[in-house]
Write a structure and sequence with these properties.
By secondary structure, the chain is α/β, with parallel strands linked by helices. It has helices at 2-5, 23-34, 48-61, 65-70, 84-98, 124-148, 164-167, 173-192, 211-214, 219-228, 237-248, and strands spanning 14-18, 38-43, 74-78, 104-107, 156-160, 199-205, 259-262.
């Protein structure tokens, strides 16, 4: 069994997860840590959720003597991903905490206008906020990763799009456009990284039961989302995290320049 599982393990690798204390991000952070990675949980705003997440991860792994010698499994780092200097500082913090080399970047940080306005009613401020984090933030993090991730064949970039890109659901025009930018950026980046051993793929979740999903929606709205789902339920963050772990591992090393729609069959 150990031989079968080995390609999925991430021992000795360092990961940065933006939005790492959010609904999907926290599941991804926990899952990567469970596979053996050291994880820098990037957050913005209230530090309490990130600190609680990191404490939980470390409490679970710092009991063994060997873990005590190697230091914490996770750290929390405040980082505004729309700010290039803060992104550089995030990578610097991860490198300093975990020994210098960084192997994995996962960009789950995202902003959505919870009023779900039609395009004709979308404010410039809302548009700028969504593109600032979703597109610019991904760009800045990927640019840093392209220059700093390990070249030893273990470098992995996993960006986050949304199945909403293909759904053409009213009220999501600016958000879906920002995520479409992520998809194109990721595919081109994968080709530009030829020869480095670094892969770049995007994960596009469908409707997932996170605080972001529930905000601004009525019970009728949620019932409609569930009724549209072929599997009869919303996705959960723990449905998404194993895909990220797979793409980050040696087992996923032949997957590159792809957008994988992890959505239970919804459009």
């Amino acid at each position: 069994m150990a031989g079968v599982m080995a390609p999925l393990m991430l021992h000795g690798r360092v990961a940065i997860v933006t939005g790492g204390a959010g609904g999907i991000g926290s599941a991804v952070s926990r899952h990567l840590a469970s596979l053996g990675a050291r994880v820098a949980v990037a957050y913005i705003g209230d530090p309490a959720p990130a600190n609680e997440l990191v404490s939980g991860i470390n409490d679970g792994y710092l009991r063994a003597e060997e873990e005590e010698k190697r230091g914490p499994r996770a750290i929390a780092v405040e980082a505004d991903v729309s700010d290039a200097a803060r992104v550089r500082a995030l990578f610097d913090a991860a490198a300093a905490a975990f020994g210098g080399e960084i192997h994995i970047l996962v960009t789950t940080a995202a902003v959505l206008d919870f009023a779900y306005p039609a395009l004709a009613e979308t404010s410039e401020a809302a548009y700028d906020a969504m593109f600032g984090v979703n597109a610019r933030g991904t760009f800045l993090c990927c640019r840093e990763a392209a220059n700093r991730l390990s070249r030893g064949g273990r470098g992995r970039i996993v960006t986050f799009s949304s199945s909403g890109v293909g759904s053409l659901r009213p009220g999501y025009a600016a958000y879906a456009a920002s995520k479409a930018a992520v998809e194109v950026m990721t595919k081109i980046l994968a080709r530009e990284l030829r020869g480095t051993g670094i892969t770049a793929n995007a994960v596009a979740p469908g409707s997932t039961g996170t605080p972001m999903m529930y905000t601004g929606k009525t019970e009728e709205d949620m019932a409609r989302y569930i009724a549209e789902a072929p599997l009869g339920r919303l996705g959960m963050p723990d449905d998404i995290a194993p895909l990220v772990g797979f793409l980050a591992s040696d087992a996923g090393g032949w997957i590159n320049a792809q957008v994988i729609r992890c959505n239970g069959g919804t459009i």
